[in-house]
Amino acid sequence: MHDRIAPERLLDFATAIYVRSGLPEADARLCADTLVQADLWGHQSHGVMRLSWYVDRLRSGVCRPVAAPELVVDAGAIAVMDGGDAMGQVLTARAMTAAIDRAKAHGVGVVALRDSGHFGTAMYFTLMAARAGCVGFLSTNASPSMAPWGGREKVVGNNPWSWAAPAGRHAPMVLDIANTGVARGKIYLARQKGLPIPEGWALDAEGRPTTDPVAALDGIVLPMAGHKGYAIALVMDMLSGILSGSASGTGVAGPYQAERRSGAGQFMLALDIAKFQPPETFAARMEAMIAELKGVALAQGAEEIFYPGEIEARNDAQHRRDGLQLPSDTLADLDRLARETGVTGLQA
């Protein structure tokens, strides 16, 4: 790790890289913010380390730098948007804004987004709904990483999904999960350290359970909760890919595949809390729920009980105060991007 970097400096740098890659200023700043915000939350796997991936996709032409989404269905509470292969972050932000606007008019807003792209962290967008006084939901499909339950070929994505809701005086309650049992990054880490992985994490290329991280990386990652995780991932693909009219299954490419158009689709909804009950009533009930959780006697070895989203909110506050520390390989990658694009580097 190196010296700490002010989040604002990192945001300005990533914005400049995106502008040099053809994005309009406002869209560049949004896409940069999604990356820096992931780092602020403590999710470096989805932070600025991914900037070069998106730049490569813009350079290759599989992702369009200027978003011009088309509304193909406009039916009151329901809309279907065609993203035209622009940046998934820009398209999803516009679609979530549309879902919120429709929720304010109808109580519920539902937007399906096709021909979109990888968008980073789902909670970035469901939090838009929570901050607007709504309960927000978002699902996306992703490139294949799992086999159907009982199989050994990758045809099912980890297909993340997120819920968010305001929580009164607390930071919003937000869930953001993928449907694999463990991130591939943890298997890479075990390989680096020469350690075995626990049973239940992965199968080898022949479909046999393995504790060998090398064999696991050549094989497939298992879903969370066994067959339940597989089924949930499939339902998210139904919503995100099939219902939206986008690609699904093996038709979806990952953000690191610079030569293939994404094909990813998203499905989102917003529920206007004020149509259900007074917002202050909802806030008080959420605070009571959180108080009940935190009042539970601690299990052995536990230091505190958290509600979903609380750890990220704490990390955000700490990192905004103290700055971000980025791994040396991420800094080297950002320096390379700076040289290639003519943007002043972070080390300058």
Describe the structure.
It is a single chain. Helix content is 41%, strand content 17%. It is α+β, with helices and mostly antiparallel strands and 348 residues long. Strands 1-2-3-12-4-7-8 form a seven-stranded mixed sheet. A three-stranded antiparallel sheet has the order 10-9-11. A two-stranded antiparallel ribbon has the order 5-6. The longest helix is centred in the first third of the chain and has 19 residues, at 88-106. The model has no long low-confidence stretch (mean pLDDT 96).
Number of helices: 11
Distance N to C terminus: 17 Å
Rg, rounded, reads 20 Å
Main sheet attributes: strand count, strand direction, barrel closure:
7 strands, mixed
Beta strands, count: 12
Short overview:
The chain has 348 residues and is α+β, with helices and mostly antiparallel strands.
How are the SSEs placed, and which strands pair?
Blueprint: H1 7-20, H2 25-41, H3 51-60, E1 70-75, E2 78-82, H4 88-106, E3 108-114, H5 123-131, E4 134-140, E5 144-146, E6 156-157, E7 161-167, E8 170-177, H6 184-193, E9 202-203, E10 209-210, H7 213-218, E11 220-221, H8 227-242, E12 266-272, H9 279-294, H10 310-322, H11 328-341
Parallel strand pairs: 2-3
Antiparallel strand pairs: 1-2, 3-12, 4-7, 4-12, 5-6, 7-8, 9-10, 9-11
Helix pairs in contact: 1-2, 2-10, 4-5
Defining traits:
single chain, 348 residues, alpha+beta, seven-stranded mixed sheet, three-stranded antiparallel sheet, 41% helix, globular
